[in-house]
Amino acid sequence: MDEAQADTTTEGKMEALRRALPQQQPTLLALLAVLAVLFFLAVTGLSRAYHAQRDSLGDRWFTRGVVDLSARHYDSAVMEFRSALLYSRDNYTYQLNLAEALIGLKRTAEASTYLVNLWERQPEDGLVNLELARIAVEKGQTEQALRYYHNAIYAAWPRDQEVKRRDARLELIEFLLNANSKAQAQAELIALAENLGEDPSQQERVGDLFLQVQDYEHALAAYRLRLKEERGSRALAGAGFAALQLGRYPLAEHYLQAAVAENPGDMQSAERLKMAQLVLNMDPFRRQLSVTKRDQAVVEAFETAGRRLRACGASRGPALPTAAQSSLATSWTRMQPRISEAQLKRDPDLVEAAMDLVFEIERQTNATCGPPEGSDMALLLIAKLHEGN
Fold first, then answer.
1. 164, 158 contact by CB (below 8 A)
2. Is 0.85 topped by the overall pTM?
3. How many whole angstroms separate alpha carbon 236 and alpha carbon 259?
4. Angle at alpha carbon of residue 278, lines to 342 and 312, rounded to 5°
5. CB contact at 8 A, 269 and 260
6. pLDDT per residue as tens digits for the range 93-112
7. Distance CA 296, CA 346 (A)
8. What is the Cα Rg of the chain in Å?
9. How far apart are CA 289 and CA 292, in angstroms?
10. With contact defined as beta carbons under 8 Å apart, do 110 and 102 qualify?
11. Does residue 383 sit in helix, strand or coil?
12. Which tens digit of pLDDT belongs to each residue from 234-251?
């Protein structure tokens, strides 16, 4: 083959190759595309496997931390929650549990940093607000504590944690009572009572708290709800005391008798029962009281007030203004010969005059000689019961 023939052959092959390439190009592109997709899927699969492994490791550490937190092994829980966060730094639940473990270790400054960050992300989170309220209480930050407590009370709690809303309000009430903010505590108690249901133990607790704010009407209502579901000496004693403070002496006697019957060692209720019975026995204005019993009660009250006046004058003479002491003593002495059952029966108007003087003596001596006891206290309570009548 000469040189000219060789060149011709080469050119022919090149020409044939050039003609074949356009026909093969779609196949090559398709092949490259398939390879690219396979590569992408492989990378995606590897990435997912990597993240799944990280999530799995984070969950494992978190699960261990939850177990230790429940067991109050706070040191271990902190380490485990921190390990979990290495695999998921922004995990909200991990950070919240770490904050709780830090609070368990009294490392509130560190816990507060996490909680504030979480609050900024979800300001409606009830548990975060509750923990921030507790930290504010510990720091003596009253306004912040009130704000966070109210946020926790009105937060969106999960249904299985709804009881924590009630507990948050109870904590707030205890905080207000410790701060001697009784009016605010009373308002919170009323709101709590309206949404409490009829849980006997909770009604009893609320009744106790109402006694602390001296809201005896609501206290009595709470104790009655408690007793409607289940009897108990503490609730009976509380209801008796509330009724006593409200001047409902027959009701007080009823509850206090039951309280003492259930718990004979309750000396406080026993003393209150004696007072309720003294008031009932010494009150001459009770309904359905016979004239004879009424007159006997007036004579006894008059003599009791006279003894109180003399004892007060002897022990605190200068403490009672001379004019007032002299006036009361003179009035009592002048009226004394007329105070007998026979005279009272003949002159019914004398009953009110005698009792007006008795009540005035008890009020004056209470102001100058201090609170009375026994029959004198009963007369003072009777005076208060009939004020304005």
1. no
2. no
3. 5
4. 80
5. yes
6. 999 999 999 999 999 999 99
7. 14
8. 42
9. 8
10. yes
11. helix
12. 999 999 999 999 999 999
